[in-house]
Design brief:
Strand content: 5-15%
Distance between the termini: 11 Å
Structural class: alpha/beta
Largest sheet: 5 strands, parallel
Order of helices and strands: EHEHHHHEHEHHHEH
Shape: globular
Helix content: 55-70%
Number of helices: 10
Oligomer: single chain
Low-confidence stretches: none
Radius of gyration: 18 Å
Mean pLDDT: 92
Strand order of the largest sheet: 2-3-1-4-5
């Protein structure tokens, strides 16, 4: 793994992608587990043979990629389906994300994991945890605006995730995203400088 890994997480609609991209602008490498999941479930993705074997053609789009809407409905209707899906995807995601962190050549890597708190295993792979935070009412507004989801569906997704309090409890650092981009920039810049120092200290210590 790269010498210094910063785990980045936050609830749905918190603005994780925006913050991650700002770190990239500062010079960090980004390893995004959501993007890796999309790779694995795209047409000819490495996870598709296992997914078809486990769930059948009902979860495959005409182009050969996973039908995310069909899978979401299946998982919400059948908790055992969620367990089967995760048992296929999670080991592959962990393997690929660890490899990409390892080969990164930047002073530190942002490892973006939406369910970092829930997964448990990612915490031990990170030198720092940064949580993107905003009020839950804003999360709901943002998700409904961008996705067209109804309120009950957004609330059910949030209920399945760690609570705001649980995320903040594991945070080493917090980026508050309750306003506009102008308020986020200085927070990310300050953290970037901090991570450069911490990364250099870790390298010097020979860890």
């Amino acid at each position: 793994m790269s010498s210094f890994v910063v785990g980045l997480t936050g609830g749905i609609g918190s603005g994780k992608s925006t913050v991650a991209n700002l770190f990239v602008e500062q010079g960090a490498a980004l390893v995004d587990t959501d993007a890796i999941a999309h790779e694995l479930t795209a047409q000819d993705g490495a996870a598709m043979p296992q997914l078809i074997a486990a769930f059948g053609p009902q979860v495959v789009r005409p182009d050969g990629a996973m039908d995310r809407v069909a899978m979401r409905r299946l998982v919400f209707a059948d908790p055992s389906a969620k367990v089967r899906l995760e048992s296929i995807l999670h080991p592959l995601i962990r393997q690929l994300s660890a490899e990409r962190c390892r080969i990164a050549t930047t002073p530190y890597v942002i490892l973006a994991v939406p369910l970092l708190v829930e997964s448990g295993s990612y915490r031990e792979r990170c030198d720092r945890i940064v949580v993107v935070d905003c009020p839950e009412s804003q999360q709901i507004e943002r998700v409904m605006a961008r996705s067209g989801m109804a309120l009950p569906e957004v609330e059910s997704i949030m209920a399945a995730q760690a609570s705001r309090q649980q995320r903040l409890a594991v945070a080493d650092d917090i980026v508050l995203n309750d306003a506009d981009l102008a308020k986020i920039y200085p927070q990310v810049t300050a953290l970037h400088l901090k991570y450069l120092v911490l990364s250099a200290e870790k390298v010097k210590a020979g860890c």
